[in-house]
Amino acid sequence: MNILILGSGGREHALAWKIAASPLADRLYCAPGNAGIAREAECVALDIADHAAVIAFCREASIDLVVVGPEAPLCAGIVDDLEAAGIKAFGPSRAAARLEGSKGFTKDLCRANTVPTAAYERFRAPAPAKAYVQARGAPIVIKADGLAAGKGVVVAQTLTEAEGAIDMMFAGGLGDAGGEIVIEDFLEGEEASFFALCDGETAIPLATAQDHKRAFDGDKGPNTGGMGAYSPAQNIDATMSARIMREIIAPTLRAMKAQGSPYKGVLYAGLMITAAGPKLIEYNARFGDPETQVLMLRLKSDLVPALLAARDGMLKSFDLRWYDEPALTVVMAAKGYPGAYVRGTVIEGLEAASSVEGVEIFHAGTKAESGKIVANGGRVLSVSAIGKTVRAAQGRAYAAVAKIVWPEGFYRHDIGWRAVTREMT
Ligand code: AMP
Ligand code: GLY
């Protein structure tokens, strides 16, 4: 079959790498793609916000399945539009993608279905929001309702900080995303990412991961899209996984179906594992980035039948195999990220780096220019490795990073520290 992937990040490179290995894949395309993806797939210069253009390309190239990477096209209804045009698409409908697109929607769904999550209220004006914050006390968490590219959450340590965040969001600091906000209690615990594949009715757990959101070593500095990750998350064992499926994923799926917007696709639950059990921090309606890079390294089974089964409502008796070995990925970003950074700087040493045993280098913001690979985004490379332990995978990933010559880039030196510390005790 002919498959089109939408997106251009490390996540999409990992998906392309895995899908290209499937005997079911004849021609593989990616729009818009990047310089690394171009090794696995034919990159197509399409504006993926232009659904008509995507549909026209699918017809022209006889695409049998579209796999949507990022949240923006999902929330804009690309799956609805493709399916309406008779083209199979993997991912949630626009209505189902509200699990990511509106934090208030998700919180209300949790409340109505007793899915464990932090206590909260929704607000449309600053005065009642500030009164609520005064009544609850700090620390407290202020969230823009809509998509804000990872910048929509302020974990306020003080009431002054909380009020500042409320004013910033209602003053339009995050655009339309902050027209409504959610304020919720601060949860104490250790975070983990949990991925489930859903077909509208049935969900099967994929794998777990932990990511590093802060820009700098020691989990310091500003929040980013993710500077590294490893899988599995050591704070989720089989018992905890079953509990997450039962208390969080299954009731969510039932509720979405009951309200006429069954959820199909990957459901990514950001969790806090608290003393009282797992609690939902947020849902994403897609694969994580950079978590997908480690998930794909650990997936033994063919991904394509799984995506098709999710799309077709056939997951009931489906089974996926995983390697037990952990995987870890180190993100290399352009200096300045997540703030302003320059593009066009040259990256060398990629071939030597990818020859390190167990290593796969997934590209994010890269492009090819006169025979060289140049940086073309904030997060630029995802240097990934599998190993017998997290420490071994970490050693391989950093050995590869050391071979990459890119003075204008930076990376964290401590990806996986929590897991490595646990392994050593
Ligand atoms: P989100 O964009 O919702 O994933 O939030 C970004 C980060 O803020 C999360 O990964 C957490 O580290 C933190 N966070 C969000 N909500 C809470 C909460 N209720 N309690 C503690 N930390 C939170
Ligand atoms: N790594 C976080 C995300 O994909 O949202």
Written account of the structure:
With 425 residues, the protein is α+β, with helices and mostly antiparallel strands. The chain has 4 domains: 2-91, Rossmann fold (3-Layer(aba) Sandwich); 119-185, Dna Ligase, domain 1 (2-Layer Sandwich); 190-312, ATP-grasp fold, B domain (D-amino Acid Aminotransferase, Chain A, domain 1); 327-423, Glycinamide Ribonucleotide Synthetase, Chain A, domain 4. Helices cover 32% and strands 28% of the residues. It has helices spanning 10-20, 51-60, 71-75, 78-84, 98-101, 103-112, 126-136, 159-170, 238-258, 291-298, 303-312, 350-354, 390-401, 417-424; strands spanning 3-7, 28-32, 42-43, 65-68, 89-90, 120-123, 140-144, 153-156, 181-185, 190-199, 203-211, 214-216, 220-223, 228-231, 264-274, 277-284, 327-334, 346-347, 359-363, 366-369, 372-375, 379-386, 409-411. The strands form 5 sheets. Strands 10, 11, 14, 15, 16, 17, 19, 22 and 23 form a 9-stranded antiparallel sheet that branches. Helix 1 links the parallel strand 1 and strand 2. The chain is globular. The protein starts with a strand and ends with a helix. The model has no long low-confidence stretch (mean pLDDT 96). The structure holds adenosine monophosphate and glycine (GLY). The site of adenosine monophosphate has 12 residues, from strand 8 and strand 16.
